[in-house]
Amino acid sequence: MPQCCPLANHAADQEVARRVYPYQEDIERLDSIPGISTRMAEQILAEIGTDIKNQFPSAAHMCSWAGLVPGHNESAGKRKSAKTKKGNKYLRSGLTEAAHSVKG
Q1: pLDDT tens readout for residues 55-97
Q2: What is the rounded distance in angstroms from the CA atom of residue 48 to the CA atom of residue 62?
Q3: Which secondary-structure segment (H or E) carries 50?
Q4: CA torsion 77→80→86→87, rounded to 10°?
Q5: End-to-end CA gap in the chain
């Protein structure tokens, strides 16, 4: 992909680095997860925030909020196809991309 505005990209990178500096420990922890790069860790923090314990009671709640949990559609003991619900499209796409990079 050609770099049409390298100075603008550099300025944006510097601004992101300045804003996430206080959360460097959290970013490094997320970056240690296979499939999660530094940029992805920054995106995750930007989308879910840093006060996760108060925002989401459990990991299941966060996954549901992100739209990564399929719906439960069952009738007469038969499970029907259920798509995942709409959630945070940026977090969902980022985590899906990370999962695909690990899957290989």
Answers
A1: 899 988 888 888 877 666 666 666 666 666 677 888 888 888 8
A2: 8
A3: none
A4: 50
A5: 22
Residue 24 predicted with pLDDT over 90? yes
Phi-psi region of 102 (alpha: psi -120 to 50; beta: other; left: phi over 0): alpha
Return the bridge partners of 57, or none: none
CA dist list (Å): 75 to 47, 80, 85: 35, 8, 19
pTM, rounded to two decimals: 0.71
Burial class of residue 26 in the structure, from the number of CB atoms within 10 Å of its CB (0-12 exposed, 13-18 middle, 19+ buried): middle
Distance CA 94, CA 104 (A): 16
- The tokens for 104 are 């290989």
Return mean pLDDT, the chain.
82
Please report, for residues 50, 54, 71, the alpha-carbon distance to residue 57 in angstroms, rounded to integers and kept in the order given: 14, 7, 19
